[in-house]
Design goal:
The protein is α+β, with helices and mostly antiparallel strands and 97 residues long. The protein has four helices and three strands. It is 36% helix and 21% strand.
Length: 97
């Protein structure tokens, strides 16, 4: 399983984790790495800077900080292996308009 995990792109691993942990009603992951070339944390292969938008029941009733903590904890391994920046937009289902 570890070998398969290492063969997946960071975006695929993030998607799998988010879908497993948060069962999102909607999900969008945008790789912004190219915009950050030459900046701190950027790497030649990219996969370092992302924007993530999730709508999930898991966020209902939680503060913005509590939601962010849940996502950061779920993606800890990604941060430990090169994910440098993650912009988050996290909403509960009653917050979509």
């Amino acid at each position: 399983m570890t070998e398969l995990k290492s063969q997946l792109s960071r975006a695929s691993r993030i998607e799998n984790l988010v879908k497993e942990r948060f069962a999102p009603r909607s999900y969008e992951l945008i790789d912004d790495s190219a915009k950050h070339a030459g900046h701190a944390g950027a790497r030649p292969g990219g996969e370092t800077h992302y924007r993530l938008r999730i709508v999930s029941e898991a966020f209902a009733g939680l503060s913005r900080v509590a939601r962010q903590r849940l996502v950061h904890e779920a993606l800890r391994d990604e941060f430990d292996t090169g994910l440098h920046a993650l912009s988050l937009e996290l909403k509960g289902p009653d917050e979509t308009g």
